[in-house]
Amino acid sequence: MRLAGMLGAVLAVFVLGASPAAAAEDALSPGQKRAVEEVVREYLRRNPEVLLEAIGAIRAKREAKQQSNVRKNLVSLRGELENDPTSPVGGNPQGNVTIVEFFDYQCPYCKRVLPAVQTLLKTDGNIRYVFKEFPILGPQSVVAARAALAAWKLDRDRYVPFHTALMQSRGRLSERKILDVAAEIGLDVERLRAAMADPGIDKVLARNAELARALDINGTPAFVIGEKVVPGAVDLETLTALVSQARGG
Questions:
Q1: Is residue 82 part of a domain?
Q2: pTM for the complete prediction?
Q3: CATH of the domain at 192
Q4: pLDDT tens-digit profile of 212-242?
């Protein structure tokens, strides 16, 4: 019975995450430890599903804790997410629902979701859209993000056309290609190039990355809509439903 009890205590460590100290009342002698280890080894060999259950329980516990942290951070960071003046804004600046998108100009999934976003903003004129430049796919993504933030600083009316043109571009980006797109939509390329060197842009990108980490965003695109953080290239129907939920119905 004592050995069975010790086995139960050890299994509690695996399955329930109990500490070894709490699992056993008395310290085990070397001989007892070897006996328990052998029993546990044989038990797990005959019942490997126990390990899978333990791994699943641990993963679920971690995910629940992670989601709890994300919800708390979403509340505390709401103002910065939605109202940071360094973040470009599209749609209706006075809209009653705000969507925040984290994106990368070289991300194929960001490009794929663009038509759904455009349709949503055209059909619902009461959405405020916040752009969070989150360049994670290499140096040229950073160049594109710097150019876009410089465009926002120089001429806010041209940011969305520039953003859209970069998203609709095909193939890998280069600085030359980015500046050519800027010229095509009417930006002064020399002024843009100078504005891209502003060290303030580095701070904006760094802070966007910090916000992404706080919300457990590690890929693009990712959307913050109401109380939800939604990763991936969601479709128009999903976006519409999330906006409806954010409005309370």
A1: no
A2: 0.75
A3: 3.40.30.10
A4: 999 999 999 999 999 999 999 999 999 999 9
